[in-house]
C-alpha cells in the first residue's frame, strides 16, 4: 500500500509541478486530460486495494460495538466530503470542457481552510481507521495524510511561483488549520457563499456514496490482487 501511495504521489505531484511548462507546449486542455488519465486510474487502484485489504495486519482495536460509533463515522465521512469538494470546484475545467486554469480561491470552504483537501482526507482517514482498527488502515491513513501535508507545501510553492505577492496576501488572510484565520480575525465566514448548486451536488454525492458503498465493496472484492 505504501508503494502504491508513493507511485500516486510521484505521478500526481510530479505532473502538477510540470504544469506550467506542459501547458506552454501542449496546451492547458491536453495537459488536463493527460493529468486525469494518469491520476484517476492510480487513485482507483488505491481505493480498490484499500477496500480489499482493509482488515489486513494486526487488529489494534475494535470499537465497532460502541453505540453511536457507526453514526459518528458516517457523519465524519460526510463532513470530509464537504472539505474535499473544492477539488472539483470547476467541473468544466476538470473535464477540460472549459480551459483549465489555476485559481486563488477565497470563498466558501476555502475561507475555513486554504487546503480543504488535506482536512477532508484527514477526517476520512480518522473515520475509517477508527472504525476498522487495523494496522493496515492506520498505516494507510498516516501515509495519505503525510502525502497531503506535503501537497500543502508543494501547492503553496506552485501558487507563489505563479502569483507571487498576490498569493502571499491570500496566505496572510487564510489558514490551513480549519477556522484558525477566522478565529484570529484575519478572515470572515460568509454563509451565503455556501448557498449554491455545487454544495447541493456535494450533499447528493454524500448520499449517493452512502448508497453505493456496499456495492463498491462487493465489486472490489471481485478484483483479486
Automatic annotation (TrEMBL):
GO cellular component: membrane
Topology relative to the membrane: Multi-pass membrane protein
Annotated coiled-coil segments of the chain: none
Presence of the UniProt keyword Cytoplasm in the record: no
Segments traversing the membrane: 32-51, 63-85, 130-153, 194-212
Record key words, sorted: Membrane, Transmembrane, Transmembrane helix
GO molecular function: 9,15,9'-tri-cis-zeta-carotene isomerase activity
One Pfam match: NnrU
Gene3D superfamilies: 1.20.120.1630
Domain annotation NnrU: ranges: 1-219
Domain of life from the UniProt record: Bacteria
Compartments it resides in: Membrane
Protein name (Swiss-Prot/TrEMBL): NnrU domain-containing protein
Amino acid at each position: 500500500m505504501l508503494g502504491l501511495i508513493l507511485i500516486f504521489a510521484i505521478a500526481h505531484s510530479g505532473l502538477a509541478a510540470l504544469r506550467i511548462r506542459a501547458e506552454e507546449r501542449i496546451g492547458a486542455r491536453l495537459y488536463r486530460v493527460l493529468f486525469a488519465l494518469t491520476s484517476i486510474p492510480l487513485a482507483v487502484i488505491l481505493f480498490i486495494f484499500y477496500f480489499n485489504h482493509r482488515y489486513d495486519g494486526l487488529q489494534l482495536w475494535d470499537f465497532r460495538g460502541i453505540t453511536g460509533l457507526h453514526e459518528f463515522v458516517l457523519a465524519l465521512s460526510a463532513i470530509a466530503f464537504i472539505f474535499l469538494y473544492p477539488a472539483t470546484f470547476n467541473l468544466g475545467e476538470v473535464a477540460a470542457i472549459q480551459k483549465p486554469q489555476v485559481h486563488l480561491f477565497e470563498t466558501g470552504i476555502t475561507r475555513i481552510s486554504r487546503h480543504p483537501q488535506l482536512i477532508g482526507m484527514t477526517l476520512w482517514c480518522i473515520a475509517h481507521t477508527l472504525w476498522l482498527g487495523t494496522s493496515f488502515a492506520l498505516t494507510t491513513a498516516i501515509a495519505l495524510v503525510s502525502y497531503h501535508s506535503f501537497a500543502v507545501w508543494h501547492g503553496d510553492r506552485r501558487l507563489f511561483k505563479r502569483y507571487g505577492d498576490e498569493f502571499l496576501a491570500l496566505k496572510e488572510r487564510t489558514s490551513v488549520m480549519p477556522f484558525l484565520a477566522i478565529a484570529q480575525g484575519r478572515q470572515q465566514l460568509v454563509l451565503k457563499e455556501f448557498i449554491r448548486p455545487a454544495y447541493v451536488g456535494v450533499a447528493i454525492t454524500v448520499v449517493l456514496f452512502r448508497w453505493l458503498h456496499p456495492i463498491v465493496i462487493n465489486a472490489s472484492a471481485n478484483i483479486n490482487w
